[in-house]
Amino acid sequence: MPVLPALGVALVAAGVLAVPVPVPVQAAVAAEWTQPGYGAGDTYYNPGESVINAGSINAVRRRWTVALPEARERCARAATPVVAGGRVFVAQETGVSAYQAGTGRLSWRFTWSSPEDESTPYLAVSAGLLIVANQGCQSQSDPDGTVRALDTVSGRLVWTKRVSAPVESLVVDRGIAVVSGESMSDTPTVIGLAVSDGTQRWQLADHSSAGVSAGGRVLVSRVGAVGTSALSVTTGAALWTRKVALAGQAASPAGDSFFASGSRNEMVCVDAATGAVRWTAARKGSPLIATDGRRVYRAMAKGIEALDAGTGARRWAVSLPGNAGQPVRAGGLLYATVDGGRPLGILHAASGARASAGTQIGAVIGGNVIVTGGRLYAIKGNTLSGYAR
After folding, report:
1. Residue 261 sits in which domain range?
2. Element holding 234 (H helix, E strand)
3. At 4, is the secondary structure helix, strand, or coil?
């Protein structure tokens, strides 16, 4: 993975590669992107962004770049950051780091004692804590999972919880961290832990979770049988069960619907409260979707398609010069990474019309963009960059 060269002792100490463009003074904007998909619903939609929009996107420039720490022997990789409290939290090969959102200066760093035995963690911010959930890498047949909570201001380890199964998904909602995983030696299990202290609140065997919650309901699938249920995130009790195989991909911003992929590659919209199917769109299943409550945006081969969130009907479709990555919706715009080292696809969310060539933001490979608080953050290789007007 590429590493940016150091520019002077001060910059090495801070871990920041300065970009010689003056940073304009902007009004303070609340910046929260607390889980990889924005929130518990995995919507990849930030309804609060107003600074970066169609009128300002072409003025956005890179303001700082951080070369993330590397480990000679490691299992983890750099992954999509989360943002809260003026800090950007990012997993990297040696552990987890927190950087100042506006400058990229290092706030703190939590380092694995054995990087070769720590997988890339899932991150989420809740109640002043950064939840870090991952698993060991040394055992292929019986890896154990670990959930840690770090203080977001200091990086201090607040609590640690070991779980017998590996951690393959995480979602945090209503003060509960829900993790799920299985291995050759571990029955598929979904576990709910209290964010405040790591206490186990509930556990459900023979099920898996895709890490999506809608209004306090977590969608889970029964492993080895056809069945999908919604669980109360606080108690683990089943609120409804349907004899259908669904893989949850996102929830509506209002928390009243799940969008899932069915067994025949269809997209299915399900009432989150009852499990009733609202609509089905044949051959539209995708693990890479975003939704703003009006449309559902799905990545497809060399393009992006928008479906009506209420009916599943196509609203628009556009071609891209490569296969699309995870769509991200913010400030009236839709962002999509494009493979092959090409610049971002930046579109008007309502119409699909191109809003920017994306050349100033550059080619973003291997991670999603985060757009919040008038700034855009992106991972490329082993570096984290911050962009602003």
Report:
1. 27-388
2. none
3. coil
Which residue carries 């669980």 as its tokens? 231
Residue among 285, 292, 368 nearest 325 (CA): 368
CA distance linking residue 363 with residue 141, whole number of Å: 38
Amino acid residing at 304:
I
DSSP helix, strand, coil percent of the chain (3-state; round to 5):
5, 50, 50
Pairing of β 333-338 and β 342-348:
antiparallel
What the block records as the tokens of 379 is: 């991972």
What values do phi and psi take at 64, rounded to 5? -160, 155
DSSP, residue by residue, 85-145? TTEEEEEETTEEEEEETTT--EEEEEE-S-GGG-PPPEEEEETTEEEEEEE-SS-SSSPPE
Number of domains in the chain: 1
Q: Is residue 241 part of a domain?
A: yes
> For residue 17, is it within any domain?
no
User: Does some domain include residue 328?
Assistant: yes
The whole-number pLDDT of residue 7 equals 31
Please write the tens of the pLDDT for every residue from 18-38: 343 344 444 445 689 999 999
Residue 46 Cα to chain centre, angstroms: 12
CB 324 within 8 A of CB 313: no
Q: What whole-number distance in Å separates Cα of residue 349 and Cα of residue 54?
A: 10
Q: What is the pLDDT of residues 205-224, one digit of tens each?
A: 999 999 999 999 999 999 98
Dihedral in degrees, nearest 10, Cα atoms 101, 104, 109, 114: 120
- The number of helix segments (H) and strand segments (E) in the chain equals 1, 34
CATH of the domain at 324: 2.130.10.10
Report if residue 9 sits inside a domain. Answer: no
Residues contacting 158, CB < 8 A, separation 6+: 129, 149, 150, 151
The helix (H) or strand (E) run that includes residue 16 is strand 16-18
The Cα 247–Cα 264 span in angstroms is 11
Element spanning 387, H or E = strand 383-388
CA angle in degrees (0–180, nearest 5) for 134-136-139? 145
Taking the C-alpha atoms of residue 9 and residue 345, their distance in angstroms, rounded to an integer, is 37
> Exposure string (b/e) for 293-321, b if CB count within 10 Å is 16 or more?
eebbbbbbeebbbbbebeebeebbebebe
pLDDT tens, position by position, 45-54: 999 999 999 9
